[in-house]
Amino acid sequence: MVRGAVGSSPQHANLKKFMEYVQLRNIEKVSRFLEKGLDPNFHDPDTGECPLTLAAQLEGCAELIKVLKSGGVHLDYRTKDGITALHKAVRSKNHTALITLLDLGASPDYKDSRGLTPLYHSSMVGGDPYCCELLLHDHAQVGCVDENGWQEIHQACRYGHVQHLEHLLFYGADMSSQNASGNTALHVCALYNQDSCARVILFRGANKEIKNYNSQSAFQVAIIAGNFDLAEIIKVHKVSDVVPFRETPSYTSRRRMTAGPLPSPRSLLRSASDNNLNGDHDHIHGQAPREPRGRQGHSPVPSLRSLPAFGQQHSSLGESRHGEIPDSSLQSTGSSRSSHSRSPSLHHMHEEDRPVPRRSHSHGYPHGHSHHGRLRTPVVMCNVNIKPTVVSSSFTF
Question: Which CATH superfamily is domain 117-254+299-397 in?
Fold first, then answer.
């Protein structure tokens, strides 16, 4: 059959019935259709869904996803609006589907129609931070940029997803990254009054002196937005309060990745050969030999610049890379079933690839989270009248 949208024919009725069986998680009937040669890569004309994206939103869908994969489904097959099954699993906060898809070989860096990754979606929708950690542990690239220059760290601060923010920072998110208006994550916290997220990024070394393109610091944005308590938190923060991460991120060993940061393009120059296959022809005809062209290096993601080689200590915590766009190339990788957190602020796991019972992610944070996700660090509540510096009262996000 031809892949694509469902048409109006007896085949159309079969495909509609197939989608119903997927919705009902009727593995026996789904398997029977696939054994008869049905191609599971098609779109439902009413919803725009495909069988795999529909399955990824269902509870207890692991076996169903495996059956679809055995029947020929493409892991990166997208809905009509450009969403993959991995995006759907993250947006529905379905870590079972996420683990299954990664185990089957889905890339954590699939892009939707807007060029956004599952990790970016996870930072927006929040939910179980285990989904965010699974993607990061599976080598998901940090630093995906939307059309307004917002990265995952901006979205986590916008919606107050503190534990997602902690995971992002541990895996190398750039706290100094600026969006199209020049606002850092701390500016976003200041505007939306997200004091818990502001405490976390200040605790981890964010530079509070960075100004946006309206020449406003995060403190000034907080004052303009009327968030005076948060302005006071920013004001009294000192460099001596910073506690950097003392552990390095852990990654799954089931994907082949470069063992360390990518070399700079200068070190990738091909000095012994010419990219032009007609190089000898040029010499024969008396033409000057061409300069060997440098092989274009991988465009480094801004937020990954501070990540060290595996097994080395973290360094240059607050280093920023302004104005760079992350590489759009996808890296196919597999996953870990470990439900233990690999962040230093959570219990560490040493046997990464063995399934173990899940544990809570809401305790043990160094910045003072209680079991309810609140910070133990006392909020500074001073009865002072903060007289803001005379600044422009307009700002753009």
Answer: Ankyrin repeat-containing domain (1.25.40.20)
